[in-house]
Amino acid sequence: MASPERGVLISGNWKMNANHFEALKLIQELSALLRSHGGVPEGREASVHPPFTSLRTVQTAIESDRVPLLLGAQDCHAADRGAYTGEISAEMLAKLNVAYVICGHSERRQHCGETDEQVRAKVDAVLRHGMRPIVCVGEDLAERQRGEAVHKVRGQVAAAFSKRSSEQIAAAVIAYEPIWAIGTGETATAADAEAMCAEIRDELVGIAGPAAGVARVQYGGSVKADNAAELLAQPNVDGLLVGGASLQAEGFAEIVLAGL
Ligand code: PGA
Predict the structure, then answer these.
(1) The CATH number of domain 8-256 is 3.20.20.70
(2) What is the pLDDT of residue 57?
(3) Where does residue 218 fall: left (phi above 0), alpha (psi -120 to 50 degrees), or beta otherwise?
(4) Each residue of 90-132: pLDDT tens digit?
(5) Is 37 among the catalytic positions?
(6) Which of 22, 96, 98, 242 is at a distance of 20 to 30 A from 60, taking alpha carbons?
(7) Does residue 177's CB lie within 6 angstroms of at least one atom of ligand 1?
């Protein structure tokens, strides 16, 4: 189990699912389920990351019903405002009481061509506005088969965090998401997830010293209610980033409470 000092963060990435009517239903169901289990226990946090058009609806539901969940976003632009048609800034997200912003998800790196430099600039924006970034890193299948996974992941971590202070790093979350495990039903073994999460922590400590080691490191990629507890039992896995399984209230509630 992750260290009590760091705590656990379970995040549901809804991706391009749930219009605001569906989002409201999902958050209400999830909230009722978590409440019936006494809420999210001490030392654990859970965030939901709806699409931009559902953020305000979910924010209102969370705040008016005191739902035991934190609001998250899936992306942001690096600039605060300006001529960037179609983009959403970190400043705008902060106004909606967003707590966590996913930066550099592999789907954005792949489909939108996001580079390490752009991901770093997004992390700057998120930190500048008092929120916490969840920075996604991970290798594809070919890189894993060539034995380059550790090199790739450490490189992505360094690109996002080099030259940052231990305070900035400690405020961040890193999600290890092997690309071959996302949406495929293939999960890294708990031992593989643990090994890479330990590499990530080691890289962070190498950048800014031991205080940086309290950053939380999540695993993501085909997490389900039936594998969540084993993953969370690993000493360097401080949480989970859940895609598909976060769209079902019951399954996600089970993951939020897994291993307790
Ligand atoms: P998945 O997605 O749980 O559907 O594999 C995880 C993610 O992309 O964050």
Answers:
(1) yes
(2) 98
(3) beta
(4) 999 999 999 999 999 999 999 999 999 999 999 999 999 999 9
(5) no
(6) 242
(7) yes
CA 250 to chain centre: 20
pLDDT of 75? 98
User: Using CA positions, which residue lies closest to atom 7 of ligand 1?
Assistant: 243
At 218-244, the pLDDT tens digits run 999 999 999 999 999 999 999 999 999
Distance 110 CA to ligand 1 centre (A): 14
| Paired tokens of 39 | 């809420």
What pLDDT is stored for residue 211 in this prediction? 97
Q: Which residue has the tokens 């895609």?
A: 243
> Angle, to 10 degrees, between the axis of helix 249-256 and the axis of helix 20-36?
50
Long-range contacts at 202-211 (CB < 8 A, ≥ 24 apart): 203/154, 203/157, 203/158, 203/161, 204/157, 204/161, 204/169, 204/174, 207/158, 207/161, 207/162, 207/163, 207/164, 207/169, 208/161, 208/164, 208/165, 208/166, 208/169, 209/166, 210/166, 211/166, 211/167, 211/170
> What integer pLDDT is reported at residue 249 of this predicted model?
98
**Which residue's C-alpha comes closest to atom 3 of ligand 1?**
243
- Joined tokens for residue 203: 């890289």
Which residues of the chain have a pLDDT value below 70? 1-2
**Of residues 105, 129, 143, 254, which has the active-site annotation?**
105
pTM score of the predicted model: 0.97
